[in-house]
Input
Amino acid sequence: MHADPKGVLTGVHFIDGDHAACEGALAAGCRFVAGYPITPSTEIVERFAHRIPKVGGVFIQMEDELAASIAIQGAVWGGQKVMNVTSGPGLSLMMEHLGYAFITETPCVWIDVQRCGPSTGMPTGPAQHDMMQVKWGSHGDFQIIALCPNSPQECFDFTIRAFNMAETWRVPVFLMMDEVVGHMTERVDIPEASEIEVVERKWTKKKPGEYKVYETTPEDPVPEMVKAGDGYRIHVTGLTHNEKGYPDMTVPNQERMLGRLIGKITQNAHKLVDVREDGVEGADVVVVSYGITSRVAMAAVEQARAKGAKVGSARLVIAWPFPAERMKEIARTAKVFVVPEMNMGQMVQEVERAVAGAAKVVSVPHAGGSVHEVDTILNAIMEAAR
Amino acid sequence: MSLLMDQSAEELECGMDNPVLPFLRKDRIPHIWCPGCGIGTTVNSFCRALGDSGMDLDKIAIVSGIGCTGRTAGYLNLDSFHTTHGRAIPFATGLKLANPDLKVVVYSGDGDLTAIGGNHFMHAARRNMDIMVVCINNFTYGMTGGQVAPTTPLGPTQTTMPFGNFESSFNLPFLADACGAVYVARWTVYHVRQLAKAMKEGLQKKGFVFIEAMAPCPTLYSRRNRLGDGVDQVKYFKERSTIKNGVDTKDVGLTYQGDIVVGKFVDRDRPTWMDSMNDHFGKVLGDKYETYGAHHG
Output
């Protein structure tokens, strides 16, 4: 279906990534946000608070991130599309509710505008410090999807995509922004509502009595949904549960439930991965990057090519699930992977794991606070190409 | 209670004319609560309140946190949500605001609502969020084995207060009143009819409703402190309770096995969070604002 025109600010705008992400959410049909201010994400909820009264919906500023990250989930079961907006310290507080959203299959979008950690770190300094936290930070096994925009336009586009993926797979979907993308102002084109594809919630057509809240089929591992108040008398719990949503804490049921929940993503990873490649075929060196770092990396790749190096770029538009199969394929021809990141080396571990010794993998870490110098990445490429 | 524990749902057919059964998920019986526990008694009162209210049960949702009382949501035949520890109130806030059609009830324990969830409790009352909060106060953490709670009075032994509790406790009605609740009542599991009536009034009241129900925890609180079994605690509730409707909530604090003040302490009206939002936006935005939730019943 197409976007509701009420939430779509069609036109050409000159706005930053935070504002663009908010517009993406409104275009995707997000009508409820429970927020808590934190630099450098606050502008997203500020804009939402300003826009939503005229669009039709609710913004509420909660007392803390614990409340925000669960109030949005209550709102999902009340029938709304929602997003959760934060940065590092807030994300740490929200981790329990990441697991709750996963086990209860509550579709929701989480926007993390990353800043330097650990702890309070550098609140206005960009970083890509949370890449592993979103993958592993909540206790227990779970799966998420994570998109990495590198421009305000992509903050708009990918937020819509994140909402659509959340409704399709019923997992938390992350938009992994950073302070630079969040506060960088560029042109953002917002199309007509009729040109924006929006995935509607997977509402059941079954009647009360026929419907089970977590019933699935071997062909379709994603259950149909209802909302509270429609007469289905559902039960939702964070305990290990059966198809009826009732607690069923047995070893076989734990295996059945968690197997399906994890399998929704792992067995469909091939449909989800998104790597944007440039000159990878025949390259000796392949630079793997994501988010704002992919723009800096591309400048380095072009300069290296000008110096005669055979360099390709593989940009992770989706970092989770990680495109391990594609990395393995690239390792058949490439000799070295160069992985610049605004952290001390996180996704590089996934590259190493996928490549498994078939090629050399070089980490180009950056503690954060600014993007890489182009020369830092260029030097790593030229060293690798020697 | 012990009979319930030993029998399957099928074997309970003989009790199927029990007036509260229509409000329960029969396929979830037997419940997990200990013999002599007071939580089931409060659920009985709540079921009677549901029936007496005449409200459409499809439009009532129940939200619990974690703990013994936190299991209540799972036994009621309503849209029911068993959430995370301490977070029932913010979950309920999101549920209510997303679907204003619903009457949302939070049903949880003293530790869940007033320790880990204390911040949310205060802020939901301050906002006058339109939810009804039922707090089953058994003065201890039951599910984890009897640790000190913010409601434990001075004196009794708890596993984490092995030499007796030396921390001051909350006076919950006073807290709710001070934060802005529009309806505040306290009853005990001895007062089943009064409790059911308070719950019915609470279901029909608009705004932040707080009902404290004192309940025995014979397994952990009473036994550890040699207070007898569940019945002995109910006798204590009966003998030492005085009904004082409308009394100042600052005077209803509890002491260890001391006098108990019960009653309806607060019943007032002020705009809910959503009404305030709608009124305010209507004033400042005029025609550009469409009242939120107006299409709902």
Summary: Strands of chain B lie at 60-64, 79-82, 103-109, 131-137, 183-188, 209-214, 241-243, 260-267.
